[in-house]
Amino acid sequence: MSSLPLSERTYLLVEDEYFTASELMACLEEAGARVLGPVAHLDHALEILSHIQAVDAAILDINLQGEMVYPFVDGLLERNIATVFVSGYEPDDIPQRIVLCPLSKSPSTTRR
After folding, report:
1. What are phi and psi of 32, to 5 degrees?
2. In whole angstroms, what is the distance from residue 30 CA to residue 73 CA?
3. pLDDT tens, position by position, 75-106
4. What single DSSP character describes residue 32?
5. How many CB atoms lie within 10 A of CB 92?
């Protein structure tokens, strides 16, 4: 068993900005996580959702190339998959049904 904090954890990364996705992926992998993605298109994310097995959490941008990610979020929540948003959107912009998901303002500094 690894001593890394996220070892044996799997995260789904849904982000269409290359540099943000690369930074998040690197941080997660450094901490020992297995990362699925990054996924940059809503239709691909929805396809993955239909085949998903074991994921501990999903890290999502709200807007994927002009499409809102909310239908994907609904599927994650139905499967009880923890969801975190990394986005420039304000909490008031998020539909009430999913407002309880944590929001990290993007761009964020992921390395400390």
Report:
1. 100, 0
2. 26
3. 998 898 999 888 888 878 888 877 665 556 66
4. T
5. 7
In angstroms, the Cα distances linking 6 to 28, 42, 48, 65, 90 are 7, 26, 22, 29, 28
Dihedral-angle region of residue 4 (phi above 0 means left; psi in -120 to 50 means alpha; beta otherwise): beta
ω before 107 within 30° of 0 (cis)?
yes
Q: How far apart are CA 62 and CA 28, in angstroms?
A: 19
Both structure tokens of 111: 């390395």
Sequential DSSP letters for 83-112: EEEEES--GGGS-GGGTTS-EEESS-----
1-33 per-position pLDDT tens digit: 568 899 989 999 999 999 999 999 999 999 999
Q: Helix or strand or coil: residue 20?
A: helix
Order across the sheet with 82-87: list the strands. Answer: 34-39, 10-14, 57-60, 82-87, 103-105
* Distance separating alpha carbons of residues 77 and 95, to the nearest angstrom: 14
